[in-house]
Write a structure and sequence with these properties.
Layout: E1 8-17, E2 37-38, H1 57-68, E3 79-85, H2 90-95, E4 106-113, E5 116-123, E6 128-134, H3 145-155, H4 159-167, E7 175-180, E8 194-201, E9 216-221, E10 226-232, H5 249-252, E11 275-278, E12 282-285, E13 288-295, E14 299-308, E15 314-329, E16 341-343, H6 344-347, E17 368-375, E18 381-403, E19 413-429, E20 432-441, E21 446-454, E22 458-460, E23 479-481, E24 484-486, E25 490-499, E26 507-517, E27 527-535, E28 552-562, E29 568-573, H7 588-592, E30 600-603, H8 626-631
Parallel strand pairs: 2-17
Antiparallel strand pairs: 1-25, 1-30, 3-4, 4-5, 5-6, 7-8, 8-9, 9-10, 11-12, 12-13, 13-14, 14-15, 15-16, 15-25, 17-18, 18-19, 19-20, 20-21, 22-24, 23-24, 26-27, 26-28, 28-29
Bound molecules: 2-acetamido-2-deoxy-beta-D-glucopyranose (3 copies) and copper (II) ion (CU).
């Protein structure tokens, strides 16, 4: 009997290279009256009904008054970077039953005051701050919208910056500047919260990303509101022209004779959708029930997913699943590019960058829309309307089929359409848009999908075409337009999946396909493949690197729960599009994104270890990553 080993694990399921960062022109924009279901209200009177329900507007208001009465914050208020539910312990949540009183409600707050980071716990029932830990680890909380705004405003007070802009011939009315997280590259920039600001020309185009002002980087201290460093080395690099950069449908439809049009299309559900959302966050559809909530950092969190078996019993599958970190390293050592090694979840937040979905284009008819309830930097409640949509998908696919040749006496064709349930959210992290889907199938499969759209982050170059490049060595990506390089980069998305197959005590097995050779004279076959199952005994056994020529399956199973045949019940983890990071393990970006050293990690359940890049990620040295936890 295998030793039960309680696990939660992380998989990188997707990695998309620069060439797949495509956008598609939608010639079929829909704008007829919508029939979606809206949860929209002002949320003034919301009350939590489930232990995992997000903080409500009244709760956020209460936390704000608790914080303002709290000693260290009474003279000057901190900037609230994140404020969210401090989930009760798993044991309390699992044993809670509908109708019972909720476990005590607590909030977890990351705040910055005078350059110091506070990690606070606020007890809503007691009305007090129960813990306040200052400056844990090397990093800072994620940047707020207010931080990013501050950084751009600081620039205009600087004459040297003004002169750099004037030297490029850019009108201040066309100037667009954005803050980039600086990563961590040694002691030079430690001890202060900084961002690196770079600018673009928005002249004659809404797509300013295609018109970078290359070679100008301003390092700004966001707390002191001052410029730390200004580097201007790119005055000789032209700003790429605006020609053909506009992507707006209203503009581009003028050229519709060049764009293939398709007739309007819509999926019909004459009896309406067959899912329900109860008490605001509990989704019930077909044989699935799960809790779904928006999160400022992870974007969406799926909890307590259970599936109904043939005998009617609800069986647990997953306690919690969410995107834990996203690593986006650009491959250019140039002084204006080397630091671009984003950790989008910890530095920007997938929920903080999620905007209202476009009805009928982002989500189909009959979608249900869920609002995000968050807090602004001053601790006031903030509603992100229509942030998540839930819908049934029928994409014309076959769910299951079989047919028989009539000659055999069985004239049969059996075919069933594939209908699934999707929970979707889109994060617009600067230039790119991540489309996150959790898709549930009636056969028990949970499919996690990420789509990438939006704009490339491009680099301006003096080169106009491949014929006038004297030496292609300084090209860090393909020339994608005149004076524009699409710098090579990747997006690695890591998921935290706390699987609870038929209960909490689960194990992890690698089922490795190996070649066996037949004995002389045994068979006309010389070789065959055999599946060898190895159950992980330690975390080290479960650090998985994928290899096409050493193929494996990965099973999470419950050794104590057996089928009629004696097989343990389990789920298979099926990797989707994957790519390994080839960066040096001691390269600063890779230390911080050490989660990408392996494609699967398995660690014991620990409620303090949810964010694989660390709790405080901005400018962190990588001292709180899954690699550090796992080494311990
Ligand atoms: C820089 O230019 C902006 C826009 O014209 C102006 O408002 C600002 O005062 C200038 N700053 C300095 C220091 O001259
Ligand atoms: C899970 O395993 C632990 C340690 O082996 C044991 O104490 C506990 O009772 C088990 N729980 C269940 C639900 O089997
Ligand atoms: C849980 O995680 C925290 C943070 O990484 C760590 O300090 C603590 O030792 C862990 N607890 C256990 C029981 O491993
Ligand atoms: Cu990309």
């Amino acid at each position: 009997m295998e030793k039960p080993y309680r696990i939660q694990f992380f998989i990188i399921i997707i990695s998309i290279a620069v060439f797949t960062c495509a956008y598609s022109r939608n010639t079929n924009l829909r704008s007829s009256s919508n029939t979606g279901v809206h949860n929209s209200n002002h949320h003034f009177t919301d009350t939590p009904l489930h232990p995992l329900d997000p903080l409500t507007v009244p709760e956020i208001n209460k936390i704000r008054s608790i914080l303002s009465a709290y000693g260290p914050f009474s003279s000057s208020s901190p900037s609230i970077n994140t404020l969210s539910l401090d989930e009760p312990d798993k044991s309390q949540v699992v044993s809670w039953k509908t109708g019972e009183p909720l476990p005590p409600r607590r909030a977890s707050v990351l705040a910055v005051l005078d350059g110091q980071t506070h990690v606070l716990t606020v007890d809503l029932n007691l009305g007090v701050v129960t813990t306040d830990v200052v400056n844990v680890g090397s990093g800072y909380p994620m940047l707020t919208t207010e931080d990013q705004l501050t950084a751009s405003l600081v620039l205009y007070s600087n004459l040297e910056f003004n002169n750099s802009i004037l030297a490029r011939g850019v009108d201040f009315n066309d100037l667009v500047c954005g803050s980039s997280s600086p990563g961590w590259f040694g002691p030079g920039e430690e001890g202060k919260r900084i961002v690196k600001v770079q600018c673009f020309s928005g002249q004659n185009t809404p797509n300013y990303y295609m018109r970078p002002i290359e070679g100008l980087t301003v390092t700004v201290d966001v707390d002191k509101r001052e410029i730390v460093k200004l580097t201007d080395t790119g005055r000789h690099i032209p700003i790429p022209k605006e020609t053909n950069t506009d992507y707006l449908y209203a503009t581009t439809s003028q050229f519709s004779d060049m764009t293939p049009e398709t007739n309007p299309m819509s999926m019909e559900q004459p009896k309406g959708p067959s899912f329900t959302v109860e008490n605001g966050h509990t989704v019930k559809w077909a044989n699935w029930v799960f809790h779904l909530k928006p999160d400022i950092r992870a974007g969406m969190i799926i909890s307590q997913a259970v599936v109904q078996a043939e005998n009617g019993e609800y069986r647990s599958v997953m306690y919690k699943g969410f995107a834990s970190e996203v690593f986006v390293p650009y491959m250019d050592p140039d002084q204006h590019w080397y630091f671009k090694s984003y950790l989008d979840v910890g530095e920007y937040g997938l929920g903080a960058t999620a905007m209202a979905l476009v009805e009928l284009n982002d989500c189909p008819r009959y979608s249900y829309y869920m609002d995000g309830v968050f807090a602004t930097a001053d601790g006031r409640p903030f509603i992100q309307p229509n942030m998540i949509c839930i819908f049934e998908r029928y994409a014309g696919d076959i769910g299951w089929r079989h047919s028989e040749i009539p000659a055999m006496g069985f004239d049969m064709r059996e075919s069933r359409p594939k209908v699934t349930l999707v929970a979707r959210m889109v994060s617009s992290v600067g230039n790119y848009d991540y489309i996150f889907d959790w898709e549930f199938q009636t056969d028990g499969v949970i499919r996690i999908k990420v789509g990438l759209s939006g704009m490339l982050l491009v680099k301006a170059t003096p080169y106009e075409n491949l014929y006038n490049i004297p030496n292609t060595d300084d090209m860090t990506g393909p020339l994608v337009s005149e004076n524009v390089i699409g710098v090579v980069h990747d997006h690695y998305i890591s998921y935290h999946l706390d699987m609870d197959i038929d209960g909490q005590n689960n194990s992890f097995a690698e089922v490795n396909l190996v070649k066996e050779e037949s004995l002389p004279g045994q068979s006309p076959r010389k070789s065959y493949l055999k599946a060898k199952r190895k159950v992980a005994k330690t975390e080290n056994d479960a650090k998985i690197k994928f290899s096409l020529y050493d193929p494996s399956e990965f099973h999470v199973f419950n050794p104590a729960r057996r089928s009629r045949l004696g097989n343990p019940t389990g789920y298979k983890i099926v990797p989707g599009g994957t790519a390994a990071s080839l960066l040096d393990h001691d390269d600063p970006p890779q230390i911080r994104a050490a989660v990408t050293n392996n494609q699967i990690w398995v660690t014991p359940h620990n409620r303090s270890e949810e964010w694989v890049g660390g709790l405080l990620v901005s400018q962190s040295k990588g001292d709180d990553t899954i690699a550090v936890w796992s080494a311990r």
